[in-house]
Amino acid sequence: MKKFIPLLVVGTALLAGCNQEKAADSASPATTAAPAIDKADAVAVVNGQYIAKSTLETLEKEIAERSHGQTFPKEKLIEELVQRELLVQDATQKQLDKSPELIAQLEAAKKALLTQADLQNFLKANPVTDAEIKAEYDSKVAAEKGTEYKASHILVKTEAEAKKLIAELDKGADFAKLANKNSLDAKESQNGGDLGWFSAAQMVAPFSEAVAALEKGKYTKEPVKTQFGYHVILKEDSRALTPPPLEAVKDQLMPFLQRKKVQEMIETLRKQAKVEILVPLTDEKPKTEAAAAPAEQQPAATEAAPAEADKAAAPAATEPAKAEEPAKPAEKAAEPAPSAAPAEPQK
């Protein structure tokens, strides 16, 4: 007996070519019937029902995308579709397609697919242009100014340990060797405490402030305390923050601009629509003992409470959520070097 193939693709769309639409038609009489499939356009016939070649092509494409190029023999894919069609026919014969639960699920699936189709149709008709990407880049990426720092550090648990290390540095000790021997952040990695290039925003405030105040080639004469412990910091270099080129961040800006366009479209639809909210927008608080007290014991201002409550319940949150800002891309070289133990990075 042939077994089901453990395919990665499961969904209503793949079963469409197997005439699953008949179940949907039962749920929604107004639904347009699926187009008939000619024998010449089919890969198999199951109890008189044709399975379209396009269904097989869709299955092959989905598998290739979801399994990173992995493919299955065509024979097994067709057998998978045959077994699915058998299950659809069996379920229809048992009138499972008429159960309220399945009808509700089919309707929900239909709405989800229509939602996706409408968004895809909108973006196809209103694509993000190169000019829009360039404008977003100029305002959000290229306009970013600042300084990057290159530094190393030694992280220890106590202030006394840090002061002892500073004393050794004052006597000419090698910073990297001290870091490899003593730093909680370099003992395992043996990287001399090197943090690579980073911006001030990538480090906790006490650390970044100490680095900014140091001269190039100098180390802190007093331990720098953060939530991670005590640091001795060596500032190796600094440079103006260089924004990445447009081409390097284009793929990151595109989804943001698409969401922004979609959000504007939805806001327009919302303003044009007549919407009535039929349920409370806030959860009612349980009545307290004070509320059950005699009327004469209640404060005089209690009578005004309903009016104030109505104001508080006003649907201020009905505005659609704004499209979130895109993460500002940073140069690869600007990322601090990975460390074995958590130091100060907000990476």
Helix content range: 40-55%
String of helices and strands = HHEEHHHHEHHEHEEHH
Q: Terminal Cα separation, in Å?
A: 54 Å
Strand order of the largest sheet: 4-3-6-5
Strand content: 5-15%
Task: Report the mean per-residue pLDDT as an integer.
Answer: 79
Give start-end ranges of low-pLDDT stretches.
1-31, 293-323, 326-347
Q: Main β-sheet, in a few words? A: 4 strands, antiparallel
Taking Cα atoms only, what radius of gyration do you get, to the nearest Å?
Answer: 32 Å
Shape: elongated
Please tally the β strands and state the result. 6
Number of helices: 11
> Given the helix and strand composition, which structural class is it?
alpha+beta
